[in-house]
Amino acid sequence: MRSRIAQGETLPVPVSRDLAELGAALRAGRARRRETQKALAARLNISATTVRAAERGDPGVGAGIYAALAWALGLPGLSTGMPPADDPPMRVRSPKKPIDDF
Fold this sequence. Notes:
Blueprint: H1 13-32, H2 37-44, H3 48-56, H4 63-72
Helix pairs in contact: 1-3, 2-3
């Protein structure tokens, strides 16, 4: 099983766009806090290279790293592109047929 997106493989355009937006939000959050990539990386016990990759929207960065960065920077969760969960679809079953014993 591969753990990384191979060089040259393409993702759906909306996914690439969402990752780029998430990376930009991480970069903006870090800049707002006036924190360097190196300092943020040290705080989360990851490498500065990983922080740079996440800020670029690299699909090879794990979801847990994105979540940790968002948490450390006080950003909302990873709900980018997700539909609202206000009204989950209900499962509809067909009515049971009555048993006719006669």
